[in-house]
Structure formats: C-alpha cells, structure tokens
Amino acid sequence: MSGQWWFCLKHMRVEPEKGCPDKDRMGPYATEAEAAHALQTASDRNEAWQVQDEEWDE
C-alpha cells in the first residue's frame, strides 16, 4: 500500500490515509514506519527545540 500514513492518537496506531479524523492524528508521513515512530519523532523535536530555546535565552 502506498500513499500517506498517519498516527492515530485516539487508537495509538498507524492508519492509512482513510482513517480517523485528522484532528485525532499526527501526519501525514511518507511511510508506515515513519508514522509508527511519530510520538518519538515529536518528542525528539520538542527536546531539540527546548535546547535551542535555552541557548537563545543565554
């Protein structure tokens, strides 16, 4: 299956393009694997942004 993939925050699983409403999902992602790691990706980005904010404040 090709197309876009989403991570559903309501059901905590990867979904194809046709799934839950977008308000309940993260994405789109190019691959199913990228969608499966959506929460970790978001966490990593938040941590990086926090470090940047701390450096900016110095």
TrEMBL record:
Q: Which residue intervals make up region (Disordered)?
A: 37-58
* Name by which UniProt lists this protein: SPOR domain-containing protein
